[in-house]
Amino acid sequence: MDAFGNPAGGGVEGLGLSVQWQSEPLGNPPTAPNGAFVEELIEAARQRLGFYQTAANYMFYCQENALALTRLEEAAMWLRARRENRGARGVQGTLTP
């Protein structure tokens, strides 16, 4: 957290995973990111589950993976909607709620 209690970077690590989160708003106009966004991790998980669903001639396809993919796609859709809403309000790239 920054001095004002806003999210400010940080990271998460686990076996085979190391993520450094974006530490500040990108600004308007945007600057280059300095870390990952949640959307990127959702997309990585979506790609991996999609791979499992089609790998080895669909040998690993299952309903549970299909449902998880649907929820990841839904999560990505809601985050896109949030970004579009913030853009329409002129607050995208800022700390304004």
Task: Pick out its properties.
97 residues, mainly alpha, 2 helices, 49% helix, 8% strand
Q: Topology of this protein?
A:
Blueprint: E1 11-14, E2 17-20, H1 38-58, H2 63-89
- Estimate nothing, just give the exact number of structural domains: 2
> In terms of structural class, how would the helical and strand content be classed?
mainly alpha
Separation, N- and C-terminal Cα atoms: 16 Å
Helix content: 40-55%
Note poorly predicted spans: none
Written account of the structure:
- With 97 residues, this protein is mainly α.
- It has two domains: 36 residues, no CATH class; 55 residues, no CATH class.
- The protein is 49% helix and 8% strand.
- A two-stranded antiparallel ribbon has the order 1-2.
- Strand 1 and strand 2 form a beta hairpin.
- Helix 1 packs antiparallel against helix 2.
Briefly summarize what is shown:
The chain is mainly α. It has helices at residues 38-58, 63-89; strands at residues 11-14, 17-20. The chain has 2 domains: 1-36, no CATH class; 38-92, no CATH class.
